[in-house]
Amino acid sequence: MPKTVLKTHSLTKTYGSFTALDSVSLTLHQGDIYGLIGRNGAGKTTFFKCVMGLAKPSGGTIEIGGKKISLSSARRQIGFLINSAFFPYLSARQNLEYLCRVKGIKSKDEVERLLDLVGLSGVKKPFKAFSMGMKQRLGLAGALLGDPPIVILDEPVNGLDPQGIADIRAIIKRENEQNGTTFMISSHILGELDLVATRFGFIEQGRLLQEISHEDLHQHTKKSLVVGVDDAEKALEVLKKRLKINNVTVRGKQLMLDNQIGKSSDIARALVGAGLELQHLAPQETTLEEYFIRLIGGEDV
């Protein structure tokens, strides 16, 4: 059983009549790269801020290493990138050196190591002149400062080009594999998150809908059967009445059937026999984005 390093119990945060977090009970295991997935306003950043002590929960509890965190000392185990807020007139090196003093890190090699790691070694211009991608790279370096066992990254690839995104992915994997760093990451680029995360949590309107491992997710989604027909509503009726298949999602003129790949021939015969034009029938592994959209009820991210 993997060790639990972060756990929330019914974590709730309200702002007046608005509920940003609604009884979120989430578990982060040691060694996870945990992808927290949700739309804008779903509660991801609010969750991170509550964990980091930047927002006070309205209810519930937070545990780090099995201890409820009423003291700031527990939070020192966590590095975080929630926004790239640095001193605008200082360089990358100067900003990291300042953070080292704040965190009590005395190693002279730490700043150079991290600047090399994120590709900012030798950059002398001030932070205010950085591109968004450079700011994100420095934010990642700041989160990794001092080798914290847990690192929280809120949209770490925001503003990066494809090569920059691949570089950040490689850094996260390297730190996870070589140093055992546990990550919790949010990102709008779900295809990228799918390449790096080992577990996922799906949040919608402040509620945690599901937690699932990468392996279990893809075991489930790879069994989908996609059927294209000229009349989706009629096809849905045929599947339900003739074949007793009820787990069907309709998207335009396509139907997505879970766990029905073995019945492909029966499905084709039933649809054609009912006078429908069968345009497409093939197994398909659902992408992470498609799985999320189906989970929240078919709305766009």
Q: Could you please describe the fold and organization of this structure?
A:
The chain has about 300 residues and is of the alpha/beta class. It folds into two domains: about 5-215, Rossmann fold; about 225-285, Alpha-Beta Plaits. The chain has ten helices and 15 strands. It has helices at about 45-50, 90-105, 110-120, 130-145, 160-180, 190-195, 215-220, 230-240, 265-275, 290-295, and strands at about 5-15, 20-25, 25-30, 35, 60-65, 65-70, 80, 150-155, 180-185, 200-205, 205-215, 225-230, 250, 255, 280-285. Helix 3 packs across helix 4. The protein is elongated. It starts with a strand and ends in a 6-residue tail after the last helix. The model has no long low-confidence stretch (mean pLDDT about 90).
**H-E order:** EEEEHEEEHHHEHEHEEHEHEEHEH
**Tally the helices: what do you get?**
10
The tally of strands reads 15
Gyration radius, in Å: 23 Å
Q: Give the total of domains.
A: 2
CATH architect. name of the largest domain: 3-Layer(aba) Sandwich
Q: Can you tell me the CATH class of the largest domain?
A: Alpha Beta
Q: Taking all residues together, what is the mean pLDDT?
A: 89
Strand content: 25-35%
Helix content: 25-40%
* Strand order of the biggest β-sheet: 7-8-9-4-10-11
CATH superfamily of the largest domain: P-loop containing nucleotide triphosphate hydrolases
Sketch the major β-sheet.
6 strands, mixed
Give the termini distance in whole angstroms.
34 Å
CATH topology of the largest domain: Rossmann fold
Q: Which structural category fits the helices and strands? A: alpha/beta
Contiguous low-pLDDT stretches (5 residues minimum) are none
Silhouette: elongated
